[in-house]
Amino acid sequence: MKYVMILPDGCADEKIPALGNKTIFEAAKIPNMTEIAKQGIVGWSNNTPMSLPAGSDPATMSLLGYDPQIYYTGRAPLEATAMNVELGPKDWAVRCNLVTIENGKMISFNAAQISSEEGAALLATAQEKLGNDVISFFPGVSYRNVVRWKDLPGSPAPFSAGTRTYAPHDYIGKSIYGVHPAGAGSVELDALMAEVHKIFADHPVNKKRIADGKLPATDAWLWGQGLKPAFPTFKERFGKTGAMITAVDLLRGLAILLGWDCIHVDGATGFYTTNFKGKGEAAVAALEKYDVVCVHVEATDEAGHDGEPDTKIYSLEQIDQHIVGPLFEAVKKYGEYRILVTPDHPTPCRLKTHTHDNVPWIMAGTGLEPNGIGVYSEDAAARSEVFFPNGADMMPFFIGK
Ligand SMILES: [Zn+2]
User: pLDDT per residue over 52-66, tens digit each?
Assistant: First the structure.
């Protein structure tokens, strides 16, 4: 049996007045997804336990069949894994966002989608001036970077499981007063952020960005810290091989920890300008070799964070046309197959951030009888009797175990 998973990140949404009170799924033209809904099951699940931050890290863990309440240690160690940052058993990885803060307000959680080249130049300077045996800065994709805080004899890492940090995308346009780190290691994190702020202030990358009328990366926001998680592999859990196609280090790191291969696609950016067609083609080719092929697209989530319904609709339509359509067609040729489309969590355009709410999904293929709903939307899914309150229970259902 071949399995296809397509994850339009953050695509679940609210009814939007500007769209005639429709959600993104309702307003977009998605003929291929509608066909899957008609031929199969429309359902509902919750991938984000209230005890954890609403984000792609615990939510995607749920989707891949790993209960985040058991396996989740933090966002940064997943990304560090993807970036080949070596973590010892007591070393901590800390997410390092390039952000724009002005007059005490979080203007942009991604420094206006700063390029990877600019980000790498800023991180290189931070590493040169502040890096040492304990602290190292590692550049990732765009604004998503990592700091490794080593635990050394005589210099233990200062954090604990109770160390509290805050996701910068939750504070867009808001004051950052009261959202500085708290608990063990917070003084150290605050001190490091203050040093980076000074270094970035007159950095050539920022001077050029300001001259070009772009937002500068004023700060490195540290959050999402954690130790490296220990997972049983997907093969051990479900007896299947897998491949991940994504532009995002978080998903790549998760896939690596599961023992999956990651397939690189030229032009996959994580934004709505991504190479949708290239991702679809790479996934179709990967079906030949792997039992499970998973395509993750970040564009829908970014559009939610930007509060842009039109961009979100565009991104979903591109996913339908260039990824879902070709994959649905291709996977049928293998005879026995299953296909699943599901967001990880909602990112409502009105809120510009993730929520803990349920998400609608569609699934079709061998052995799955249609459940008579036939429409892919939040409202339609809420009518379904197929509901997984713990999203990690969906994978065994999908795989058929
Ligand atoms: Zn997001």
Answer: 989 999 999 999 999
Residue with tokens 């605050």: 190
Residue 401 has pLDDT above 70, yes or no: no
Angle in degrees, CA 399, 268, 335, rounded to 5: 30
The structure tokens listed for 396 are 């065994």
d(Cα 34, Cα 376) in Å, to the nearest integer? 6
Distance in Å, CA 28 to ligand 1 centroid: 20
Cα(185)–Cα(163) distance, integer angstroms: 7
How much distance in Å is there from the Cα of 378 to the middle of ligand 1?
19
Q: How far is the CA of 344 from the centre of ligand 1 (A)?
A: 10
Q: Are 313 and 270 in contact (CB under 8 A)?
A: no
Tokens of 184: 């063990």
pLDDT computed for residue 248 by the predictor: 87
Across 31-87, the runs of DSSP E, i.e. the strands, are: 41-45
pLDDT reading at 269 higher than 90: no
Three-state DSSP class for 223?
Answer: strand
Asked if 138 and 126 count as a contact pair (C-beta separation under 8 A), the reply is no
3-state helix, strand, coil in the chain (%, to 5): 35, 20, 40
Tokens of 123: 């991180």
User: Using N-to-C axis directions, what is the helix angle for 325-332 and 31-39, rounded to 10°?
Assistant: 40
Residues whose CB is under 5 A from ligand 1 (ion)? 301
What is the CA(345)–ligand 1 centre distance, in A?
Answer: 9
Q: What angle do CA 323, 24, 392 make, to 5 degrees?
A: 65
Query: Which of 296, 319, 189, 305 minimizes the C-alpha distance to 249?
Result: 296
CATH of domain 2-72+231-399: 3.40.720.10
Q: Where are the domains of the chain?
A: 2-72+231-399, 81-226
Q: Which two tokens stand for residue 200?
A: 């970035």
Euclidean distance between CA atoms 393 and 171, whole angstroms: 32
> Residues 84-93: what's their mean pLDDT?
94
The pTM (predicted TM-score) of the whole model is: 0.86
Token pair for 400: 């058929």
Question: pLDDT tens digits for 12-54?
Answer: 999 999 999 999 999 999 999 999 999 999 999 999 999 998 9
Place of tokens 């937002």: 215
The CA 346 to ligand 1 mean position distance, Å, reads 9
By C-alpha distance, which of 238, 232, 233 is closest to 395? 238
The rounded distance, in Å, linking the Cα atoms of 84 and 348 is: 33
